[in-house]
Amino acid sequence: MNKSLDPRVNRLDLPQGELTPKVPLDQFGTFEVFVQLKEGKGYRHEGSVHAPNIDMAFLFAKEQFSRRLMCAGIFVAETRNVFVTGFTEDKDSIYNHISDDFPEDGEIENYEVFHLNKRGKQHEHIGSVPSKNHQHALAQAKGEFIDGPPVFNIWVIKTADILFTEEEDMIMWNTLHEKKFRDASDYKAADKIKAFKERQQ
Amino acid sequence: MYGGGNTFEPMKATGIENEDPVLLAEFEARIERGEKIEPHDWMPQLYRKQLIRMIEQHAHSEIIGALPEGTWITRAPGFKRKLALMAKVQDEVGHAQLLYSAAETLGKPREQMLDDLVTGKSKYSNIFNYPAFTWADSCFISWLVDAGAIVNQLANARGSYGPYCRALERICAEESFHLKYGHHCVIHLATGTEKQREMMQAAINRWWPPMMHFFGPPDKASVHSEILMRWKVKMSSNDDQRNQFLDMYVPKIWELGFTIPDENLKKNTVTGKWEYTEPDWAEFKRVINGDGPCNAERLAVRRTAEERGRWVRKALLTPKTEYVTPLA
Amino acid sequence: MNTLAVKELLYKMADDQLILGHRNSEWTGFGPLLEEDIAFSSMAQDKVGQSQALYQLLHELGEAEPDTVAFTRNADQFHNSQLVELPNGEYDFSLIRHFLFDTAEALRFEMLTQSSFEPLAKLAKKIQGELRYHTMHANIWIKQLGSATEESIGRLQKSLDEAMPYALGLFENSEFESDLISSGVFAGEEELKSKWLEQVEKIIDQTQLTLPDVLTLTPKTGGRAGIHTEHLQPLLDEMSEVFRIDPTAEW
């Protein structure tokens, strides 16, 4: 291969000749990421990352989903630990379809509840309920939230399955607002254009 | 960043006649109402297939798109540019991550998409097969290629597939930084020394033809594209996007005293459309099929990155986690 | 306060951050997995940003503008440790260097939060969050790869053995060491080094890696005095290639 214009590429020692096929690898697990923009605001689902474990998922989530503007905290949970209900339409809340019955197995612990308030938008954290299992949590959430605006889909995650931002790690976002170089507002140059045009005349 | 062009698979039969007519009607009614389709909703096979293809190409374009500008990442002049270019190229990788996730919700795992990229089975935006000779080329890309991508992405963000729209909203917000940064760089070259102006003019001359290719050849009217428009997979025609781009950016290039290497380029005041020399579509086709100045290098770099990272990924594989498709 | 002593301290820290930030940025787009590519780039940006802040402090003490200082000096005028200028190698070397360097850097800035030189103490406090993420990142990666496969352990061990003498070069004493300590600007390289060793040992002990016996190693020093490996000048030539087309131009 010819010399690259990119000095980094020239240091990579690209293979000569035909490319050999890539060896397939299994994928890592999938983790859902929730971000809190500022203290007092709710956590909102922002997307997912692939990672081999939850600690790394947190590392990855932090830079993929909170490297701009502001952030007060994030949390991550493995996708397969998210209990998902069916979906409803129009004004019909999913809570109308949640059974009050639930299996009795399990010890009481906390479960986090997330609502989809509008189709096409993201799930938002609404609160937590002490329950024995995911179905129980849904039944509990129904009692608490059915009188609110219609909810079209619910996610329930056992609190113990979530990795939260530790109190002492909250300083990690402290300098975010100073990283102006990632922000469109730091690139104003109208005065230069104006001066240039005046020179041209 | 991504343009139009070569996005949709030509298919002899659309296959919709095999779909359940009741479900299909509900699906179309939902789109008609302006609602998003979500991963768990029923969707026609053709819809799924074309979306995977489109989002995957978009994701590949981001990760390959990191390379031409990456050419200058170690040489950006001064702290402000150095930090900005690092952040910008990083964003392109970040966009790829978001888009692969969106495509995964339709059922194709990321590893499989990356395999299809490095084997050349799936495509990416043609423009990234061109070299960035000087710093000014990287400025052209940051400003104008991203501008073109924004035209395309803003249109697609109004599309029907929820996860893709949400990814695009995030991406467009970040691209506004790219666009402003790129314009800022070009303005500085334009209003700087004679040498800087020359560098920038030369970059414009080099990049104009691939920029015109960026939105793809004129769409042929077909049943197929009519369906994709109705399903809000394809949101506007390649020519409309090209025209919108020219309308927004040609005046901005001219105002900086630069010329554009097409003597036929002008806006028809009667039709309101731009007229230009028809781009060389034979070259476009040749480059897309692998014979461009940088195709081999781009794929080899991606391939090498995969290869060199393999021991890392292997060491990270643990029985603790299991791949599932992302939720939304 | 001895201004010369403070300047020397600021220069070596700024140069370390700049050169390593630059090196780490070379990985952008080539990383072993997408998410890590993004994370590693952010940390490189943090480093370059920190170097800029340190050059700004120097500027306030009468040195030239940060851009001029960073983009026009030659290798013999740089005070970075040799550790940071070494080529990236494979990801194992880059990660080990990141771990060894950032552990030291986080501790150095933690010590500097107490500095009698106010502007530096203020900066040190401000960037503690960034450094917390860097060390969290480094520790998690080293623990993971340092106890995973035979290949990953072997690679990390080899890189650790290679990098260690250079890492010890980070703590090369300054001629102003006693000035800095007595004036309360910085508690000194020796104290930093012992804290660093303790922390590095703590993490390495949780892996299948073996920390080389530092007493048997000769630290690769000289960097602080402008003596560098053959890798630094080409790095600087590359970094300033565009800037030097016209250093008076606005880019």
What does this structure look like?
The complex is a heterotrimer of chains A (201), B (328) and C (251). Chain A has 201 residues and is α+β, with helices and mostly antiparallel strands. Chain A has helices spanning 7-10, 54-65, 134-145, 190-200; strands spanning 29-36, 43-51, 73-78, 83-84, 109-116, 124-131, 153-158, 162-164. In chain A, a hairpin with a 6-residue loop joins β1 (29-36) and β2. The N and C termini of chain A lie far apart (49 Å). Chain B is mostly helical and 328 residues long. Chain B has one domain (16-316): Ferritin, core subunit, four-helix bundle (Ferritin, Up-down Bundle), CATH 1.20.1260. Helix content of chain B is 61%, strand content 1%. Chain B contains 11 helices and 2 strands. In chain B, β1 (266-267) and β2 (274-275) form a beta hairpin. The longest helix of chain B is centred in the middle third of the chain and has 29 residues, at 162-190. The model of chain B has no long low-confidence stretch (mean pLDDT 92). Chain C is an all-alpha fold. Chain C has a single domain (3-245), classed as Ferritin, core subunit, four-helix bundle (Ferritin, Up-down Bundle), CATH 1.20.1260.10. In chain C, α5 (91-112) crosses α8 (150-168) and α5 (91-112) crosses α10 (189-204). The longest helix of chain C is centred in the first third of the chain and has 27 residues, at 34-60. Chains A and B meet through α1, β1, β2 and α4 of A and α3, α4, α6 and α11 of B.
List the helices and strands and how they pair.
The complex is a heterotrimer of chains A (201), B (328) and C (251).
Chain A: H1 7-10, E1 29-36, E2 43-51, H2 54-65, E3 73-78, E4 83-84, E5 109-116, E6 124-131, H3 134-145, E7 153-158, E8 162-164, H4 190-200
Antiparallel strand pairs in A: 1-2, 1-3, 3-8, 4-7, 5-6, 5-7
Chain B: H1 21-32, H2 45-70, H3 79-104, H4 110-118, H5 135-156, H6 162-190, H7 194-213, H8 223-230, H9 238-255, E1 266-267, E2 274-275, H10 281-288, H11 295-316
Antiparallel strand pairs in B: 1-2
Helix pairs in contact in B: 2-3, 3-6, 5-6, 5-7, 5-9, 6-7
Chain C: H1 3-25, H2 34-60, H3 66-72, H4 82-85, H5 91-112, H6 118-126, H7 128-145, H8 150-168, H9 177-182, H10 189-204, H11 232-239
Helix pairs in contact in C: 1-2, 2-3, 5-6, 5-7, 5-8, 5-10
